[in-house]
Amino acid sequence: MIFSEPIPLGLYIHIPWCVQKCPYCDFNSHAVRDALPEREYIDALLSDLELELPFVEGRNIKTIFIGGGTPSLFKPESIERLLVGVANQLSLEKDAEITLEANPGTVESGKFAEFSAAGINRLSIGVQSFQDDALRRLGRIHNAKDAMHAAEQAHVAGLNNFNLDLMFGLPGQTPKDAIRDLANAASLEPTHISWYQLTLEPNTHFYHSPPSDLPSEEALWQIQQQGQEFLSQHAFRQYEISAYSRNQPCKHNLNYWRFGDYLGVGAGAHAKITDSRQAIIMRTAKIKHPRDYLQQSSSQQADSNNRISNTQYLSRDDLILEFMMNALRLTEGFEPILFEQHTGLSLDNISELLEQATDKGLLHTSSERIQASPHGQRYLNNLLDIFMPDDKSSAS
Predict the structure, then answer these.
(1) What's the gap between Cα 99 and its chain centre?
(2) pLDDT at 3 over 80
(3) Which residues pair with residue 102 across a beta bridge?
(4) Burial 326-350, CB ≥16 within 10 A → b, else e
(5) What's the CA dihedral at 223, 227, 229, 235 to 10 degrees?
(6) Per-residue pLDDT for 33 more than 90?
């Protein structure tokens, strides 16, 4: 593998606690039982990060994303101590995007201003719906009024670059309900809306006890078509399967989708790092449970070589599939040179697969750009199957 260009680098920080576990959530999140160990956890995060530094020596951080769980449960002073600690260890670009996930039910009046003072310059607010009945069925702790208030407080705090998370395909939802949610979101003037379908993920309550009134496939397609038209009419450009932006796409997530690099610290955090000198790309995953993560972090301080990660080195087939799984989510696709720069592989490795996908009408290819066709966007899994290694295809 040959890497001719520096690969952009982000930092993901995971804070795993939330007030309660939602029935659809398969993220690494844990309901708060006692007082949050904020100081101990920030110490662990910074210690964790220090052990990752040799793998990114000399590289600048372009984005930071603090996700969860519900990071807004932490006090602003804890977030400030975290960001100061990060800046002491890593070189941040001057215009680095620094995002904090927040839930409306955990944001008191004025708290966003304190997060802004701590160094946060972008918010991602987990609204999911503006209809109280839907929120109750989703297990959310906020109501529609809380959601509206959170967005208004973001503007008051000067955090005008914010995302609203919304879901569709909710139990009992009609196309009219879904458009009403989008209309409420647009009225709050976010720069970004994430609008994605409720899915029944394994190891969730909804997976084992599905709601009986989920919309049909026909209704889902109608909701999606009408919703995309609404968002387009209100100047939200779709740039990824579930991401719509008013000229401010999420830089951190764009880096994921373009197969850039990112460090991951915190319980259950994942990372992807390219070592161009050794011509390898590795993925790491941290210990998932916060209790175990904190215990391991304490013991690692006595052994500076003890990274709290599992590491996997990506094979040629892994690289091809993972690049395509990310880059083909983008509506504009990718430039062919990006594949070579971010995988270290020649485009010749996938030329036959590209031709096969193009012949099936799932892909548009040219010397300037490779992107999923409208048909390929709708049936993305079928498109990705073409890039699946034979051993994994047969297993599935």
Answers:
(1) 11
(2) no
(3) 125
(4) bbbbbeebbebebbbbbbbbeeeeb
(5) 180
(6) no
Q: What is the pLDDT of residue 306?
A: 54
Tell me the H-state helices in 127-238: 132-137, 144-156, 175-187, 205-208, 217-233
Q: Dihedrals φ, ψ of 311, to 5°?
A: -120, 135
Does the CA dihedral 357-358-361-366 come out positive or negative? Answer: positive
Domain boundaries, given as residue ranges, for the chain? 9-256, 316-395
- Intrachain domains 9-256 and 316-395 with the same fold: no
Copy the structure tokens of residue 53. Answer: 């530094």
For residue 197, count CB atoms less than 10 angstroms from its CB and return exposed for 0-12, middle for 13-18, buried for 19 or more. Answer: middle
Q: Which fold has domain 316-395?
A: Arc Repressor Mutant, subunit A (1.10.10)
| Confidence label for 277 from pLDDT (cuts 50, 70 and 90) | confident
pLDDT digits (tens, 9 = 90+) for 160-214: 999 999 999 999 999 999 999 999 999 999 999 999 999 999 999 999 999 999 9
Which range is most confident: 303-312, 351-360, 387-396? 351-360
Q: What is the CATH number of domain 9-256?
A: 3.80.30.20
Number of residues assigned to the chain: 396
Spatial distance between the Cα atoms of 144 and 194, rounded to a whole number of angstroms: 17
Q: Which two tokens stand for residue 208?
A: 């084992």
* Residue 363: alpha-carbon gap to chain centroid: 25
User: 148-161, pLDDT tens digit by residue?
Assistant: 999 999 999 999 99
Check pLDDT > 60 for residue 50: yes
**CB 128, CB 154: distance < 8 Å:** no
From the number of C-beta atoms within 10 Å of its C-beta (0-12, 13-18, 19+), residue 218 rates as exposed
- C-alpha gyration radius of the chain: 21
Give the separation between CA 225 and CA 92, rounded to whole angstroms: 40
Secondary structure class of 292 (helix, strand, coil)? helix
